[in-house]
Design goal:
- It comes from Candidatus Gottesmanbacteria bacterium RIFCSPHIGHO2_02_FULL_39_11.
- It is found in: Cytoplasm.
- InterPro entries: RlmKL-like_Mtase, RlmKL-like_Mtase_CS, SAM-dependent_MTases_sf.
- Pfam families: UPF0020.
- The structure is a single chain.
- By secondary structure, this protein is α/β, with parallel strands linked by helices.
- The chain folds into two domains: 185 residues, VC0802-like, CATH 3.30.2130; 226 residues, Rossmann fold.
- The structure holds S-adenosylmethionine.
- The site of S-adenosylmethionine (SAM) has 20 residues, from helix 10.
């Protein structure tokens, strides 16, 4: 049995459901060994190419293999006893030449924060034990001093830990401790390059972060042979990420000529500037209102729609519940027209991953009525988080099982809804 860990991004609920969706799509049999808001650890009989998964996922910041499991004693972890030279040299140092640079991250796999202070002490102890073993074996080493118990990916990158050493990862749960090493980190520079450097970004109509676009595509569970459409394409974030994920048939449309031109220009730019972008794949960008989807695309021709529609005008102050209700009434009519079109152009079993607006009020998220909307047009909602894990992610999951994306300071939050056309 192999065991792998995935370190979850800033929205752990989305990161978790994305990983589950991608593993299922790739028919990987797995069981969940440990899950917290910080990390998912799975067991599988398959050998996973962890780097390939990190390249696909938008919401995973690091991933690696777990190579040992130890029991936790009352007074903490006895590193002298449990971290032996055999274990360390075989798992982390084999094949390394010259001075070894390493760092340690300690993850909290419990639901309580009371151990966190202890973990911070643990980090120092682990580093000293590793250094001692390396010295005894005539290996010169240096470790990354860190105030944080979880090393940021930038620290790993800039200290070249993966090429010149290792990141030692410790996962502490109630009775046991899992230890492993990081094999791959997210290419955060590439995400921010695509986000910030593309020639056209329409801040006024809103831009979806590339990582979220990628998560949404992955949540669809559809493979890259599928025909994918974004009918509210804006400046083309979702089509660009779909291309990088290997989708060969990408359709995009928008009712604004500016958005169509921006998307076309951004995709042309990506052909030259974005590593891994496949200029030879089909990318069709059209000017079309969602009202005309049925005449723009053949009935039953689309496998998957991933989209962020118009979410309302830009507002700078928190709106009252009444004004949100008024906005929702206006938006409902746009969404009804969109969903009617989706129901006609999608194949049976076709999937939609769509953003809806949400506003955080004192008594929770104020959401648009998608339940009746989906029912009316023959869709059923798919839950992306298994029910037994919902409590862990209660701050991101709504009562109806959808996930909210947004920070405390954002006025409009995004509700991510996955739904499927009934056969
Ligand atoms: C929030 S933006 C999409 C942003 C996009 N996800 C991105 O990252 O650039 C919504 C888009 O919906 C388009 N739109 C609004 N109403 C529309 C309609 N009735 N039919 C088609 N597109 C529409 C707007 O022109 C705008 O580009």
């Amino acid at each position: 049995m192999n065991s792998y860990f995935f370190i979850l991004g800033r929205n752990p609920a989305l990161s978790f459901s994305e990983i589950i969706s991608v593993l299922k799509k790739n028919s990987v049999p797995f069981t969940i060994k440990s899950l917290s808001r910080e990390a998912l650890i799975i067991s599988t009989e398959n050998t996973l190419s962890v780097g390939e998964y990190v390249n696909i996922l938008g919401g995973t910041v690091k991933a690696g293999e777990v190579f040992s499991e130890i029991n936790k004693e009352k007074e903490g972890i006895n590193w002298e006893k449990n971290l032996t030279p055999e274990l360390l040299l075989k798992s982390c140092v084999s094949g390394k030449v010259g001075k070894v640079h390493f760092g340690t991250s300690i993850y909290n796999q419990t639901t309580e924060d009371k151990y966190v202070a202890q973990y911070n002490r643990e980090q120092g102890r682990v580093n000293i034990q590793i250094k001692k073993i390396l010295k005894q074996n005539q290996i010169s080493s240096g470790f990354v001093q860190s105030k944080e118990r979880i090393l940021p990916t930038a620290t790993i990158l800039y200290n070249k830990l993966l090429s010149n050493g290792f990141e030692f990862s410790v996962f502490v749960s109630e009775g046991k401790v899992l230890i492993g090493k990081t094999l791959s980190i997210q290419d955060f520079n590439a995400f921010s390059f695509r986000d910030m450097n593309r020639p056209f970004r329409d801040k006024k109509s809103g831009i979806i972060p590339p990582k979220l676009a990628r998560i949404m595509i992955n949540l669809s569970g559809k493979d890259s042979q599928s025909t994918i459409l974004d009918p509210f394409c804006g400046s083309g974030t979702i089509p660009l990420e779909a291309n990088l994920l290997g989708f060969r048939n990408i359709l995009a449309s928008d009712n604004s000529q500016k958005a169509v031109s921006d998307t076309q220009a951004n995709l042309e730019w990506a052909k030259i500037h974005v590593l891994g972008f496949k200029g030879e794949y089909m990318l069709q960008v059209l000017k079309a209102d969602v009202e005309t989807l049925m005449s723009t695309y053949k009935p039953g021709s689309i496998d998957v729609i991933v989209t962020e529609p118009y979410l309302g005008p830009t507002i700078f102050n928190k709106p009252t519940k009444e004004s949100v209700e008024t906005l929702f009434k206006e938006l409902s009519s746009l969404y009804q027209r969109a969903l009617l079109g989706f129901s006609k152009i999608l194949k049976p079993g076709g999937v939609v991953v769509m953003v809806f607006p949400s506003f955080l009020q004192t008594d929770g998220h104020q959401l648009i009525d998608t339940v009746n909307l989906l029912e009316k047009f023959g869709f059923e909602k798919k839950n992306s988080i298994p029910q037994n894990y919902a409590n862990l992610f209660s701050s991101e999951i709504t009562k109806r099982g959808t996930v909210i994306y947004g920070g405390e300071l954002d006025i409009v939050h995004r509700e991510i809804v996955v739904f499927q056309k009934k056969d």
